Amino acid sequence: MLRQAGFTIPQEDQDRIFSGDGYAEPFLRLLGADEAESFDNSDYEHATHIGDLNQPIESSLKGRYTAVIDGGSTEHVFNYPQAIKNCMELLQVGGHYLGIVPANNLCGHGFYQFSPELMFRVFAPENGFQVERVYIAEQIPGAKWMRMPDPAEVARRIEYGGRRPAYLYVRARKVAEAKIFGTIPQQSDYVSYWAVGAGDHKRRKGVSRIKNLIGGLPSPFKRTIVAATSVIKRRRDPAIKPVDIFID
């Protein structure tokens, strides 16, 4: 993968990094980072900064970094809104949030699994950010990377089924200083429904009637309908497209 991305790393450096203690700092420096610092709630892995991401970060840390890598941290923090806000505040304008977080079939790994919708609503212009890419990839060798669109732009929910553990890969750029979560994020399809008002109310009443009708059917018929619905849901949304991440 490094070669595909255009990096040529001498074998002795590879041996030194990948046979070491498993921490990311040496690898990040090899990729060009001038400094690499870490945050943790405990000093048991000798992090640079010790603090609880459930709580606001110190003012002296705000706007200090050109990149924040969330390599599977925020799903373990109960107060996710504060944790992700901390990540956003650590960045200087022009810096990037790089997220590698669980999406599907990792129940029990942490407190949470995340959706593309959440990332697009969190890293929004009103919070001073612009999402550059959101991908999903299953946790298997040679997995295809699927580019996820913004549900608000395609005007519907973007759902990914899959039967294997999958991770979201997020790249968002800080474009301005803003009051983060000054307006609480809302799921985009509901924002559209609320804007429609009475028409949407009729639509939802219609859906409720269909559900009530199905609920009154004999069990064999219900099982057939549920099975057919599951097959339909497993088909990939055409808006989710496989991409070559090195040229996308």
- Specify the CATH homologous superfamily of the largest domain: Vaccinia Virus protein VP39
Q: How do the strands of the widest beta sheet line up side by side?
A: 3-4-7-5-6-8
Number of strands: 8
Count of alpha/pi helices: 8
N- and C-termini, Cα separation: 15 Å
Count of folded domains: 3
Beta-strand fraction estimate: 15-25%
Mean pLDDT: 87
Q: What's the CATH architecture name of the largest domain?
A: 3-Layer(aba) Sandwich
Oligomer: single chain
Indicate the CATH topology of the largest domain: Rossmann fold
Apparent shape: globular
Q: Uncertain regions: pLDDT < 50 for 5+ in a row?
A: none
Q: Strand count, sense and closure of the main sheet?
A: 6 strands, mixed
Write the element-wise H/E pattern from the N-terminal end onward. Answer: HHEEEHEHEEHEHHHE
Indicate the radius of gyration in whole angstroms.
21 Å
Helix proportion of residues, in percent?
25-40%
Structure classification = alpha/beta
The CATH class of the largest domain: Alpha Beta
